[in-house]
Amino acid sequence: MATLAALLSLGGCYKEKAGKPGKAPPAEIASPAPTPSPTPTPSPTPSPTPTTPPFTGTPTAVGPDASGIRQLASIPSNFDTSVHYEAIPPASSGAPDVVGAFRFLCRPSHLAYDDPIVFPGQKGRSHLHQFFGNTLADANSTYESLRTTGDSTCNNMLNRSAYWIPAMLNGFGKVVLPDAISVYYKRRPASDPLCRNGSTKGCIALPRGLRYVFGRTMDGKLPAGQFGIECIGGSGPHQKFANIPEAARSCPVGAQLLISVSAPDCWDGVNLDVPDHRSHVSDQVLVNGQDACPASHPYRIPKFTLTAIYTLDDTIDRSGDLSTSRATWHFSSDRQEGMTPQIAGTTFHADWFGAWDDDALKAWTANCIDRLLTCASGNLGDGRMLRINSISRERTGSKLVDVPARPRV
Hints:
Layout: H1 2-9, E1 85-87, E2 92-93, E3 100-106, E4 108-112, E5 129-133, H2 143-148, E6 162-166, E7 168-169, E8 174-176, E9 180-187, E10 202-203, E11 211-215, E12 226-232, E13 240-241, H3 244-249, E14 256-262, E15 266-267, E16 281-282, E17 285-287, E18 290-292, E19 299-300, E20 303-311, E21 330-331, E22 349-353, H4 358-369, E23 373-375, E24 384-386, E25 400-402
């Protein structure tokens, strides 16, 4: 599968050159790419019956641990972790790029009207979401439940983190299942002088229990981070688009639509969540012409870019019509009951609730990021990779599935 292979092999995209500060482009895409063949996409795993207790949703602020970082207490993996690694040649250097990179793919897991960050403990309250990663993520998920239950569609359950995005609807009563999402982390090595530039106190790993929402809001605004839509396999010139109708106009059936959002990479060092689920992370600022974290958010964490990949079929309208009532592909968040409809694609956002195995997280941070390597496909940079389990591999099945009924709230 051409596009997915390109995404996995390019750990050095989104390059951040020394002496050339500023934001990177909104998607880490290989260009040009060969026209891919339509790719069967898996049927979703039915949403499991929740087994975790309701969560109150109180924003989480904790005291510093022995390392001085505020994060939740470690929860060891409750399985034999050794069988989830396999040998692989060491990753290559990312030079001349100045950031280390770690990336992998996640296959779709399940659909649910749940959001354990925005509506914790309130099953059926949110717009329809497509979940990836932890197979038991639901409205009741907590850091403890994610760390101790569920398998994962992101290589294996060493990464029990939960990832979710608005479901893609085709306007004819169907959900369009994505081929996958690409997850990409990058950050300067901890030894880089810019890790203590201006107000920046240091470059650190992802704190345990951190969660946030990033990307566009329900009214189409982009408060922080980056956003972009691209067509891979189209006949026109390679370019970025502002919305789905404009992209679809030059993106033929069988080509792939890639929709990316990037999260801010500065953390306040205190809160693992806040009431708006966004403001505890922030974009960098320029200090004397160089990137630095603001004083309000002094810790630099790995920058997270999520790219959703869809293969186009003939249910997508390719006229370029920006009407918000036209029957065509749109995200569940674009057209919500009781809210002003938005142009298709302009409310795309992502939610992330971290639940990595401690040792796996330390490995890719210490090797891929701090040794300035380019790690793809879950390569940990030390001669090991995250073994890919059966539910994380490419699967066949219908690409269009019925929109599930909303549970009674």
